[in-house]
Design a protein that fits this description.
- The complex is a heterodimer of chains A (about 375) and B (about 325).
- In chain A, helix 2 crosses helix 15 and helix 3 crosses helix 15.
- The model of chain A is unreliable at about 370-378 (pLDDT under 50).
- Chain A is about 75% helix and about 0% strand.
- Chain A contains 17 helices and no strands.
- Chain A has about 375 residues and is mostly helical.
- Chain B has about 325 residues and is mainly alpha-helical.
- Chain B has 15 helices and no strands.
- Chain B has helices at about 1-10, 10-35, 45-65, 65-70, 75-100, 105-130, 155-160, 165-180, 185-195, 195-200, 205-235, 245-255, 260-280, 285-290, 290-305.
- In chain B, helix 2 crosses helix 13 (about 260-280), helix 5 runs antiparallel to helix 6 (about 105-130) and helix 8 (about 165-180) crosses helix 9.
- Chain B is globular, with a radius of gyration of 20 Å.
- The model of chain B has no long low-confidence stretch (mean pLDDT about 90).
- Classes of the chains: A mainly alpha (about 375), B mainly alpha (about 325).
- At the A-B interface, helix 5, helix 6, helix 14 and helix 16 of A face helix 6, helix 12, helix 14 and helix 15 of B.
Chain lengths: ~375, ~325
C-alpha cells in the first residue's frame, strides 16, 4: 500500500503535466505547427545550453519565494491572492532603503534592505488579514483590491516622488540606483573557476540560496516545532484546534504575516540582484505564478522548489519557442494554467481514492462480527 | 463648491449608470452561482473572455457580412454579445466541471480560470490580430431613447441616447429577483445552496442545479465583458476589466446575495468608478483616483459583510457518498 501511494503521489503531477502538454499540443496543432518539434525545441533550448540552465535558476528564484508565500497562507485555509501587491511594496521598501542610505557597509545595508522588503510585504498584508479576522471581509477580494492599489501607489511613488532626477526627460521611469552595499551578491564567482561565465551566470544571485534555505526552514518549522504543530492543527480541523486551546485567529494572523513577509522578498531578485534600481516596468505577475506553484507543490515548502524550477523551465522554454519557432509564448502560459486545473483535479481524486482505500483497509482490519453493537454505544 | 457640484451632476450620474452595467451584470451572475452554492472567483477571467469575444465576434461578423451590417448595423454588436455570452458559458463550464463534478476547492478553480483567461486572450489576440494586447475598433449598438421618459427634459442625459444594454440589464435585475423568489427553478437553486442534502433527498439534482447557476453566471459575466468592449471602449484591450469581476463579487455580497441588492451595490461602485473617470481636479494624485472603486470595495466588505446572510452551503462542495 505504501509503495503504491508514493507512486500515486508522483503520478498525480506527472499526469497533470501530461494533460497540460496534450492541450497545448492541440493548440499548437491548431496553429498549424508540430507539437513534438515545439516541445523538442523547448527541451533542447532550456536544458541543452548552460546559459539557459542559469536563466532557469534565476527565473526560479522569485518563484520559490512566491510559492512559499502562497503555500504558507494556504496552510491555514487563507487565500493570500495579494502576494502580487505585497511584493510590489516590499520591492519599493527595499529599493528605498537601498538608494536613500549611503556609506553603510554591505553587512549592514543589505540585511536592512531585506528587512525593509519583509516589512513592506507585511504592511501590505496587514489590512486584509485584520479585516478578515475582525470584520469577516473575504481575504480573496480584499487582497486582490490591495493588488490594484499597490500598483497605483507604486506608480505614484516611482513616477511622482522618487523618480531618479537624472532620468527626467527620458522615457525611463525609475528610482535612483541602489547603493552597491545593498545589492545582493552574484553567485558568478562560484562558477567562473569552471569556465562558466556570461550575463545569465552573472544574474544568478544569493537570493536563490536564501529561497532554498527558507524552504527547508519552513519545512522544519511546520514539521518539528510547536508553532508548526499548531499550524497543522488549524489546517486539519479548525474547530478541534480551537477546542484544544489553539487560537485559530492568532495562528492565522501570524502565518498570514509570514506569507506577506515572504512575498516582500520576491521582487528583490530583480531589484537588488540584477537591475540595481526599481523601474516601473519591473517584472510583474510573479505573485500569481506563486499561486500555481503552491498548488503544484501541494503547499509543501520543499515541493515548492521543484515546482518553481518547472515553471522557470517553462518560462525559459517559452522564450525559446517564441524566438526560434515564432510560437507565441502565451501558448506556455495557457499550458501552465491547464496544468494547474489538471493538478488540482488529480490531487482531489487522489485524496478521495486514498480515503476510500483507508476505509476499506480499516473495514478489513476490523474484527469479525457486526459492528452495529459497537456503533450503538455512545 | 466646484468640486461638490461636480460630485452630483446629472452627467456624472449618467456616466455612473453606464459604468455600473458591467459590474451589475457580473454581480447578477454571481448571485445565481452563489445562490446555488458555488463561489465563482473566475468571473473576472470570464469577463476578460467576454471583452475579447465581444470585440472579436463583433469585428468578424461585420467583416463577414458587410452588406447585412450596412442595412442593419446593430447585428454586428449583437453578434459580439452573443459570442461573449457563449464564451462565458464555455469558461464557466470549466469551473463547473472542476468544482462541482470533481469537487475541487472553488476558489482554487476560479483562480486557475483567471490565469487561463489572461493567457488565452493574449494568445488568441496574437493569432487574430498579430499583436497581444489590442483588437481593432468595433461599432457599438445604435443608442436609443427610452420611451415615455424621453420627453422629460430634466432627465435627458439619463434616458436619451443610451445603450440598449442598459434597460435590458435593469430588466434582468427584476427578472432575476422574480426567478429566485417565485419560480420553481429559483427555489430549487436556493435550496441547493442552503441545504443540498435536503434538496437531494427531495429529488432535486444538486449537480444539475449548481451547473445551471454557474453557467448562468458565465453567460452574464460574458455579457458584462461584451458591454465593456462593445459599448464602452469600442475595442478590446488587455486589462480593460480592471478587476471589475472581483468588484462585482463584492457588490453581490454587499447586496446580500439578491439581485435588487446587487443593483444598489453595483450602483455605488459605478458611482465611484464614474468619479474616478471624471474628477481630475480633486487635490489627490490621479493614480489614487483610479483605484477609488477598489478602495470602496474594501471598505464595503469591511463594513457591511457581517450583516449579510450568505447561502449556508456556499462554497462547500457536495457529494452524495460523503454526507
Amino acid at each position: 500500500m505504501r509503495g503504491r501511494l508514493l507512486l500515486l503521489q508522483i503520478a498525480g503531477p506527472a499526469l497533470a503535466i501530461l494533460f497540460g502538454m496534450v492541450i497545448s499540443s492541440i493548440i499548437i496543432l491548431a496553429i498549424g505547427r508540430n507539437p513534438l518539434e515545439v516541445f523538442g525545441l523547448m527541451v533542447r533550448f532550456s536544458l541543452g545550453r548552460t546559459d539557459s540552465l542559469f536563466s532557469i535558476l534565476f527565473k526560479s528564484t522569485p518563484l520559490i519565494l512566491a510559492g512559499l508565500a502562497v503555500a504558507m497562507s494556504f496552510r491555514v485555509n487563507l487565500f493570500n491572492i495579494g502576494v502580487e501587491g505585497q511584493y510590489y511594496i516590499g520591492a519599493f521598501f527595499a529599493a528605498y532603503v537601498g538608494f536613500s542610505l549611503r556609506g553603510l557597509p554591505a553587512a549592514v545595508h543589505l540585511p536592512l534592505a531585506l528587512i525593509a522588503a519583509v516589512l513592506g510585504g507585511m504592511v501590505w498584508g496587514l489590512l486584509p488579514i485584520v479585516l478578515k479576522l475582525r470584520r469577516g471581509a473575504h481575504e480573496v477580494i480584499t487582497t486582490i483590491m490591495m493588488n490594484y492599489i499597490a500598483s497605483a501607489v507604486l506608480l505614484y511613488l516611482i513616477n511622482d516622488i522618487f523618480r531618479d532626477p537624472t532620468q527626467v526627460g527620458t522615457p525611463r521611469v525609475r528610482t535612483p540606483d541602489v547603493a552597491a552595499a545593498a545589492r545582493i551578491p552574484s553567485l558568478a564567482a562560484l562558477f567562473s573557476p569552471f569556465g562558466l561565465t556570461g550575463s545569465d551566470v552573472q544574474k544568478l544571485n544569493a537570493l536563490l540560496l536564501l529561497g532554498v534555505l527558507l524552504a527547508f526552514v519552513l519545512a522544519f518549522v511546520l514539521a518539528r516545532t510547536r508553532f508548526g504543530y499548531e499550524v497543522r492543527a488549524v489546517s486539519a480541523n479548525p474547530e478541534a484546534a480551537e477546542a484544544a486551546g489553539i487560537p485559530n485567529a492568532r495562528i492565522q494572523f501570524w502565518v498570514f504575516m509570514m506569507s506577506a513577509g515572504l512575498a516582500g522578498l520576491i521582487g528583490l531578485n530583480d531589484i537588488l540582484g540584477f537591475f540595481g534600481y526599481l523601474d516601473i516596468d519591473f517584472p510583474k505577475g510573479l505573485g500569481f505564478l506563486g499561486i500555481s506553484i503552491a498548488l503544484l507543490a501541494k503547499n509543501n515548502p520543499i515541493g515548492v522548489i521543484p515546482a518553481a524550477l518547472l515553471f522557470g523551465f517553462l518560462d525559459r522554454g517559452a522564450q525559446g519557442v517564441q524566438f526560434f519557432a515564432r510560437i507565441p509564448k502565451e501558448t506556455i502560459v495557457i499550458m501552465q494554467a491547464i496544468i494547474i486545473l489538471a493538478i488540482v483535479v488529480a490531487y482531489e481524486l487522489l485524496t478521495r481514492y486514498i480515503r476510500a482505500q483507508r476505509k476499506l483497509e480499516a473495514e478489513a482490519a476490523a474484527p469479525v462480527g457486526p459492528p452495529a453493537a459497537a456503533e450503538a454505544e455512545p | 463648491m466646484e468640486v461638490l457640484s461636480s460630485l452630483v451632476s446629472l452627467a456624472l450620474i449618467a456616466s455612473a449608470i453606464r459604468v455600473t452595467m458591467p459590474i451589475l451584470l457580473t454581480a447578477l451572475g454571481a448571485v445565481y452561482s452563489e445562490r446555488g452554492g458555488v463561489v465563482n472567483i473566475g468571473l473576472e477571467g470570464i469577463m476578460i473572455m467576454g471583452t475579447f469575444f465581444g470585440a472579436v465576434g463583433n469585428y468578424f461578423f461585420a467583416q463577414a457580412f458587410p452588406s447585412l451590417v450596412a442595412r442593419a448595423p446593430d447585428v454586428a454588436p449583437a453578434a459580439g454579445v452573443l459570442a461573449a455570452v457563449l464564451a462565458g458559458v464555455v469558461f464557466a463550464l470549466i469551473h463547473a466541471v472542476v468544482s462541482v463534478t470533481f469537487r475541487v476547492n472553488q476558489i482554487i478553480s476560479g483562480v486557475a480560470l483567471n490565469l487561463l483567461a489572461a493567457g488565452l486572450a493574449r494568445f488568441l489576440n496574437i493569432l487574430l490580430f498579430t499583436q497581444a494586447t489590442q483588437s481593432p475598433g468595433v461599432r457599438g449598438f445604435t443608442p436609443i431613447d427610452l420611451p415615455l421618459l424621453r420627453d422629460i427634459p430634466a432627465l435627458a442625459p439619463l434616458v436619451r441616447g443610451i445603450s440598449p444594454m442598459i434597460p435590458v440589464g435593469l430588466l434582468l435585475v427584476i427578472l432575476s429577483q422574480w426567478v429566485l423568489l417565485r419560480t420553481r427553478f429559483g427555489l430549487r437553486l436556493r435550496a441547493v445552496g442552503e441545504y443540498p442534502l435536503a434538496a437531494d433527498t427531495l429529488g432535486v439534482s444538486v449537480t444539475r442545479m449548481r451547473y445551471a447557476g454557474v453557467l448562468l453566471s458565465g453567460a452574464l459575466a460574458g455579457a458584462a465583458g461584451a458591454y465593456l468592449a462593445v459599448e464602452q471602449a469600442h475595442l478590446y484591450f488587455e486589462g480593460m476589466t480592471q478587476g471589475r469581476g472581483f468588484i462585482a463579487l463584492a457588490a453581490m455580497i454587499f447586496g446580500n446575495w439578491w439581485p435588487v441588492g446587487a443593483l444598489g451595490a453595483s450602483a455605488l461602485f459605478g458611482y465611484f468608478d464614474a468619479l474616478s473617470l471624471r474628477v481630475v481636479r480633486l487635490p489627490v494624485p490621479y493614480q489614487f483616483i483610479n483605484v477609488l472603486p477598489h478602495v470602496v470595495t474594501i471598505l464595503v466588505l469591511a463594513g457591511f459583510v457581517r450583516r449579510a446572510q450568505m447561502p449556508a452551503a456556499d462554497g462547500v462542495p457536495y457529494s452524495k457518498e460523503e454526507e
